[in-house]
Amino acid sequence: MISEKRGNILYLVVPCFNEEEIIEKSVQVLKEKVTRLIKESKVSHKSKIMFVNDGSKDKTLQLLHKVAKEDSMISVLSFTTNFGHQSAILAGMLASVDYADMVVTIDADLQQDIEALDDFIEAYQRGNEVVYGVRKDRHSDGFFKKFTATAYYKLLHFLGCDIITNHADYRLMSKKALLTLKEYKEVNLFMRGLVPTMGFPSDIVYFDVKEREAGSSKYTLKKMMKLAVDGITSLSIKPLRIITVIGLLSCLFGVGMAVYIFIDWLAGNTVPGYATSVMTTLTMDGITLLSMGIIGEYIGKIYMEAKGRPRYIIESFLWNEGDSND
């Protein structure tokens, strides 16, 4: 039995983008799980599932509206266009904060083990405000994805980012944590790195990743690279400091080359030095362009934040007031 010390209204927030091939199965599986949790008195009968349609171009929204009109457990929030996975997660959590005691974000593709919810709730009832879902291993990934993911997490740790390795966006947050998150106003969102900075008591639940049952992953290489850059620039200014160090080392290298050339001239050597000149020029130009690119990323982030545009625009919100057992 759960403790009565904490509220137990659970909301599942499920971001969706072009998931028509699996969305009906996703609704069925998630609803069955929440229903079992209600019957076992682990969560309240007021618990719900909120799907966030992130500007899908297929029939995802139509299928969700059909289900929501027939089932009081299901609510649907829809964007005007595709604002991205991170914005969809945030919108669902903020729309739930006034009603839920705890919110769990989970993807619609059913790859994240839904049975881990029991462990999430137990950790929450032990007093944790945030519970992170962490995959046990990456055996299901291909070599390229496994290598790049491992390298990326190591890079983030090297840059001083407070991030949990192999944690995606399968997490539980309490009302207290969500109300704090609501105070964060930045446009460039990287939830995996943002949530740990709040410092609330937390725990980790390990889960297995399943094979995707239908459809294909919507996280293209381009989107993954964008998320990776957003993660680094949102959490750390260390790349800027690295540029400073590189600039200093380049200056020292230039001074060393000048001394070497002067000594060589005094010795009467007339080596043309074509290869050395080309190599030095290309290297320095490469460092300069890379440095400008990194600085440009940070300036771009400042530009986006300064404009103050909304992080997402809601087109419709199909909200069901009834209890889940109505």
Describe this structure in words.
The chain is an alpha/beta fold. The protein has 2 domains: 10-215 and 310-318, Spore Coat Polysaccharide Biosynthesis Protein SpsA, Chain A, CATH 3.90.550.10; 238-307. The chain is 47% helix and 15% strand. The protein has 10 helices and 8 strands. It has helices spanning 23-39, 60-70, 85-96, 117-125, 143-158, 175-181, 191-194, 221-235, 238-266, 274-307; strands spanning 10-16, 48-53, 74-79, 102-105, 130-135, 167-174, 202-207, 314-318. Strands 7-5-6-4-1-2-3-8 form an 8-stranded mixed β-sheet, sandwiched between helices. Helix 9 runs antiparallel to helix 10. It is elongated, with a radius of gyration of 25 Å. The two termini are 24 Å apart. The model has no long low-confidence stretch (mean pLDDT 81).
CATH topology of the largest domain: Spore Coat Polysaccharide Biosynthesis Protein SpsA, Chain A
Determine the fraction of residues in helical runs and give it as a percent range.
40-55%
> By CATH's scheme, which homologous superfamily of the largest domain applies?
Spore Coat Polysaccharide Biosynthesis Protein SpsA, Chain A
Note the overall shape: elongated
Poorly predicted runs of 5 or more residues: none
How is the main sheet built? 8 strands, mixed
**Number of distinct beta strands:** 8
Level-1 CATH class name of the largest domain:
Alpha Beta
Gyration radius (Cα, Å) is 25 Å
Strand order of the largest sheet: 7-5-6-4-1-2-3-8
Summed over residues and divided by their number, the pLDDT gives a mean of 81
- Structural category is alpha/beta
The CATH architecture of the largest domain would be Alpha-Beta Complex
Count of runs of 4 or more consecutive helical residues:
10
Succession of helices and strands: EHEHEHEHEHEHHEHHHE
